[in-house]
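Form P-L/3: holo structure prediction, ligand nicotinamide-adenine-dinucleotide.
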Amino acid sequence: MSSNTTNQPLSSSKMLAGKSALVTGSTSGIGLGIAKALAANGANIMLNGFGDHSEAMRAIAALGVEVDYNGADMSRPDEIESLMSAAAARFGQTDILVNNAGIQHVATVADFPVARWDAVIAINLSSAFHTSRLALPAMQTANWGRIINIASVHGLVGSAQKSAYVAAKHGIIGLTKVTALENATTGVTANAICPGWVLTPLVQAQVDARAEQLGVSIEEAKRGLLAEKEPSQQFTTPEELGELAVFLCGPASSNIRGAAWVMDGGWSAQ
Ligand code: NAD
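OUTPUT (holo model):
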């Protein structure tokens, strides 16, 4: 398994001091890991997501930055508009936008419930369009901004029973490219990050389902999941993804535009 099990950000600097970041879906998993990494490097943070957010608030505040929370449902454009207004009111503007909120549903195309299809597309794809359209004008005026879309290796390749997810993730890579191109001569960049397996609540549900279906232990189910797709046999961690997000916000990344950057243990190299 991965060498980084500290649950703490891997780097700390003041590189992002004075910037503010909105990370959607940051009450757990990858979003929380990215929010912590941006905070550890000085950015103020607007958290979003469902469930208990008190632990996330405490963890970010402990890193010495300003932090706030807005519980907008990212499937709803009206609530996204309120979220963007609240972030601007609290921090002046959103300099760094991380579109991370996402859900999964596993079923064949023929059996896929229509309401789940609509929800996956709304949360995993359309929400990024809405946050981006609302954040971009202020970024363009400031001539600095970073949009980081959390896609997936499923934005590059497919897997059976994940039609809505794969469609949304391929779509968000397309949105990333267009956003990058429209701002290519400015200080506003847009890039996508494409993780392979990351052991978060979203994937734990798939591990649990596999263990039950095959009648094996949770550890066995994890090994099986990795063995099928990920040559490194290792989960990527939220902390590692946080470091990639920090890098994409830094000066060395100013000419990285429209990339779909994999961190997938070799999954898409096969
Ligand atoms: P997670 O379930 O731990 O976190 C998802 C976050 O999104 C939570 O904070 C949740 O509250 C929030 N969320 C869900 N629906 C929402 C809604 N309607 N409105 C607002 N917030 C909502 O999952 P995760 O694995 O950390 O996934 C985060 C992102 O990373 C997703 O876009 C996912 O597709 C992507 N991703 C995950 C993996 C993985 O292996 N875990 C791999 C590739 C990509």
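COMMENT: The beta strands are 20-23, 44-48, 67-70, 96-99, 145-150, 188-195, 260-263.
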